[in-house]
Amino acid sequence: MEQLKIENTTLEIVQGDITNQKDIEAIVNAANAYLRIGGGVAGAIHMAAGPELEEESTKLGPIKPGEAVITGAYNLPNKYVVHCLGPVYERDIPHDKLLANCYKNAIDICEEKGIESIAFPAISTGAFGYPVEEAAQVALKQIIDKMKGLKKLKIIRMVLFSRNDFLIHIETLKKLYK
Ligand code: ADP
């Protein structure tokens, strides 16, 4: 695990499964616009949460790229799921701004609700085709920018599914925060 502390908040980079973050209050879903089950992260989250998650989430859709909404987490070990719609690479333009908005809006929701810990997957880097090196730069830069002045959020965790994506995020963090 790699860590970076800024003021009262710690950024952690880990390799793992987003549905298995037992010590985290809110996990982030890489959602589709209609907040339906889908594949990848969304499929794993809905499978672990149970059908009530989709019943609640679909009422909040459709959402636009960069937007985030919050629901309960049902059978997941967390309290909330924050659903973010990432941009499709080279289709939802400007993809870097829209991807950064996902992280920014999710963190703002936590601050509003008094949530103390959040875990993100690498939004848009699966089916939406965002190259992981570029996505890691956008995500980590936005998270670090937001970490200054946070009042409630104490832990922000990036959870990378593959070893390769984990190592890329660690390298990117080192470059951004020398
Ligand atoms: P998007 O549609 O936003 O691209 P995906 O769910 O297809 O979202 O993939 C986003 C990233 O999440 C990919 O890098 C994928 O490898 C990773 N991923 C898939 N399943 C999990 C999981 N259970 N936990 C964490 N990351 C996951």
The end-to-end distance, rounded to whole angstroms, is 17 Å
> How much strand?
15-25%
Largest sheet: 7 strands, mixed
- Computed over alpha carbons, the radius of gyration is 15 Å
Total domain count: 1
Order of helices and strands: EEEHHEEHEHEH
Helix content: 25-40%
CATH superfamily: Leucine Aminopeptidase, subunit E, domain 1
SS content category: alpha/beta
Number of helices: 5
Tell me the strand order in the biggest sheet. 1-2-7-6-3-5-4
Query: Bound compounds, please?
Result: adenosine-5'-diphosphate
Report on this model:
- The structure is a single chain.
- By secondary structure, the chain is of the alpha/beta class.
- It has one domain (2-176): 3-Layer(aba) Sandwich (Leucine Aminopeptidase, subunit E, domain 1).
- Helices cover 37% and strands 21% of the residues.
- The protein contains 5 helices and 7 strands; from the N terminus they run E-E-E-H-H-E-E-H-E-H-E-H.
- It has helices at 40-49, 51-57, 95-113, 132-147, 163-176, and strands at residues 2-6, 9-15, 26-30, 68-72, 80-84, 117-120, 155-160.
- It has a 7-stranded mixed beta sheet with strand order 1-2-7-6-3-5-4, with helices on both faces.
- Helix 3 packs parallel to helix 4 and helix 4 packs across helix 5.
- The radius of gyration is 15 Å and the shape is globular.
- Bound molecules: adenosine-5'-diphosphate (ADP).
- The site of adenosine-5'-diphosphate has 20 residues, from helix 1.
